[in-house]
Amino acid sequence: MSFYEDRILPHIIDKACSMGQVMKLRSQVVPHARGTVLEVGMGSAINLEFYDTDKVDLVYGLEPSEGMRRKAQPNLRRSSIKVEWLDLPGEKIPLEDNTIDTVLLTFTLCTIPDWHTALQQMKRVLKPGGELIFLEHGESDHHGVKKWQHRITPAWKKVAGGCHLNRHIADLIREAGFEIRELENLYIPSAPKIAGYIYKGRAVKPAEI
């Protein structure tokens, strides 16, 4: 990992992902988490303040970046939620099958290189009927914005930790075998449209037959 990725990028990502409107969106989705939670790409743990402590027993924080885990320490100290770090990428989740009640994804799926394998891993560890809660940015449904997202992404991902502006989040989740139960698309107010098109919702792992 380069100096930029370890020491500089975590501060940039934390700042961008903790703006007022983004935090408002987080406050609307994170409280739905329950039971044993796997938060994929936990980053600086800025979601911790929004967990419902009466509903959550344990959070596994999957975060491969040592810089982000360092950045998380103040938030961990302020929270009463029990957190266990998993120092691996989303494609390698070291948990048993059917053990997780909720998977939480917030501004993470855009950066995972092998998103399909990662989503399959999330589905594997979820209990049948367990929920995938997601708040992600991705490909816009407006042609002009979408065109620029595809143009900019190759350069953008080199400086933004692998972030893809042009992933159609809902399609990725469906392709992995989840059933989307709730979905809302919107632009973050005042954010550049190429980076501010939001997919917000909940999906479930189908019950085993």
Number of strands: 7
How many DSSP helices?
7
Element-by-element helix/strand order: HHEEHHEEHEHHEE
What is the mean predicted local confidence, pLDDT? 92
Task: Pick out the low-confidence regions.
Answer: none
Q: Biggest sheet, in brief? A: 7 strands, mixed
Shape descriptor reads globular
Radius of gyration: 16 Å
The share of residues in helices is: 25-40%
* Span between termini: 44 Å
Q: What fraction of the residues are assigned to beta strands by DSSP?
A: 25-35%
Strand order within the widest beta sheet: 3-2-1-4-5-7-6
Structural class: alpha/beta
Describe this structure in words.
The chain is α/β, with parallel strands linked by helices and 209 residues long. It is built from seven helices and seven strands, in the order ααββααββαβααββ. Strands 3-2-1-4-5-7-6 form a seven-stranded mixed sheet, with helices on both faces. The chain is globular. The mean pLDDT is 92.
